[in-house]
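Help wanted!
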Amino acid sequence: MDFLSILLDILLSAAFWTAVLRIATPYVLGTLGELVCERAGVLNLGIEGIMTLGAMAGWMAVYQGADLWTGVLVAAACGALLGLLHAALTVPLGLSQHVTGIGVTLLGTSLSYFVYRLVLPQASTPPTVEPFQPLALPGALAQTPLTYLAFLLVVAVAYVLYRTPVGLAVRMVGENPAAAEAQGLNVTAIRIGAVVAGSALMALAGAFLTLSAFNAFFFNMVNGRGWICIALVVFASWRPGKALLGALLFAVFDALQLRLQQASGGVLPYQLFLMMPYLLSILALVLVARRASYPRALMIPYRKGER
Amino acid sequence: MKGGPEVVLRLAGISKRFGPLLANDNISLTLRAGEVLALLGENGAGKTTLMNILFGHYVADEGSIEAFGRPLPPGSPRAALEAGIGMVHQHFTLADNLSVLDNIAVGTESLWRWRSDRGAARRRLLDLSQRFGLEVRPDALVGDLSVGERQRVEILKALYRDARILILDEPTAVLTPQESAGLFETLRRLTADGLAVVFISHKMNEVFAASDTVAVLRAGKLVATHATASTDRARLAELMVGRSVKPPAPAPLSPGEPVLELSGVTVASGHGRPLLDGVDLTVRRHQVVGIAGVSGNGQTALAELVSGLIRPDSGRLSLKGSVVEHGDPADMVRRGVARIPEDRHSAGLVGAMSVWENLIAERYHDSSFSRFGVLRRGAARTYARKVIEEFDVRCPGPDARTQLLSGGNMQKLILGRTLAHGPDLILASQPTRGLDIGAVSYVHSRLLDARAAGAGVLLISEDLDEILALADCVTVAYHGRLTPLLPHDRVSVSQLGLLMAGHWDILRDILPETVDAA
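Answered by r_m:
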């Protein structure tokens, strides 16, 4: 079989598209979360740690006997708390968003491992829970509820940002906080709110990994997905619809490389295939993001009354 | 004004201190419905601070504000908006990436509604726009608008919120003369509707064009309040500056040897017409050469050339008789060129750094300011104190951050940096743009002092009055070319205007002996 027919076989199989939607889900959620933070003018590099904490906390709640949806809520609440920490340091105190974000990632990741080991000191094989089951729908539509939730949230975030007063306020503080303040808005409160909400979304991405895609928590399971989300936000020019598109595109590359790896039968080193989605993302970023109009006040702390 | 319209705003005993600087000192003002009050004062007199206190950006240390008979809570723009006060900031507070309608409507609805009522917002905006003759396109991105249009958006923003008192901070600083006239027309329509307007200005002609009452601030104090009709320019200028202002009077001096010579200098632009096209120019000691011209006719390239930022593509540049082969900015400084850049904020000073750091920026590597690669901070500070004293820079001290200084004081700082070392050539690009009367006359007298001390001055300015007052010789830039030098007493403003528009045929009348030069 030549390469093209292999590719065609893959692209026409329902299993491939099922995998694409599944792989895309954490990217969709994480990118939406980052997008909400950045629209308000706050870069949140804590995303990797917040996703890890969401993954651990959601799983741990279910492992301790809570039902799956309670686990999801616990994850979101933990993400919101870490987001509050990031917001407290970057918004009223105006600390460097880069440094704070990396600190939050380190804290979120280590805290997750620490709590996990505290509760399960001896586990050599990670214990499992009963995860979300795919809905009984045909073909690629057979997804777990969290995937459907992620796609609904794209619409919801887009609606809030573009059709409600609070969304306009969020965009305004990300573009020009001085203008927002002159219109009587509380810049600090709006930025903190956006970071907290965005971080809760990121934590959902983590919870999807342990409660839907897999059924256990293990170290390094987030594996750089947060950083990909940061790039996807730029790729999406800070728009929810394009964020969905970017996440799907990345998932297509990822699902494709797995299958091509198997089909190649060891002719090419598998690392080449692993690289593919990242290389293609960089390429897409270069092509799309050069003209991106970023929120003007992104990464600029706002201090009231400063001349 | 006894028994006139109701008093809508009353400031009582406002004082505000920034560190050691007393920005507002016990200021009391009243404003009546339908009145236009001009707040006149030099840069740094405290006008903007006062209005920022009124609008809640700052909190006053002392004093109280009453709007429409009710006390205004301090430090809250929201409270000011609710009390009917709107402010148009000098640096517009608009978000470029959002539409006009979004910029105006943000914050006017309760945040927690499920849906913005954009239809109603649009109707209200268009209604206001029509009522006050302020044309806008609601769906245009603010970033695509001209400066005049942005200002209309700012005014509409205030009106949209039912402002009855409108504060405008230096509203004409960014407008063309035609746009300014339009603005004053708008102000008349607003006051006819019963609004009260405060506008901040340091330009005398605006005060007379637009205001009913004028309040003069000087060094944080309210020095006088007059009905505009009952006063005159000279009196206001004196109140503003605190002394009478004399126009500069250059003493006649005979020019010395050349310090700057350009011969046949061409600078390509990369596309189309060259930036400079075969320019010949000589500047001598004891001489001010003025370059007049509409901006964009090669003045910037000429300034960059003399600063060492760009090099000629052909032709020759000599300083004090020696040809400069590979000039760079540091080399030009070493050769005795002092530079007053066109934009003091972006090219002149580093706002986030201190006064002393900025002062030694051109010569920090001198042995007087560093030894073995280590800065001599003590020596630098002592030097800074000397320059601050000598050039009358109003600032808390050598360690003050430069961005806290007013425009006039920033310019004095640049003058101090460049003139303190007895330069041979001074390149002054728009040296008084945006400065108030006091600072302008200070800059002029310093330039003339340097001329008397033996420097040559290359003065690039769009202000013809300035050029004719200072320059010994004038040349006009048009499409990258320069006219021959014209003695300042043989050319009139209207002739310069014609030359600036490209009518070089009149050179024949001004300079019969060099008829072939053009």
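OP: Thanks! One thing I noticed: Chain A has twelve helices and no strands.
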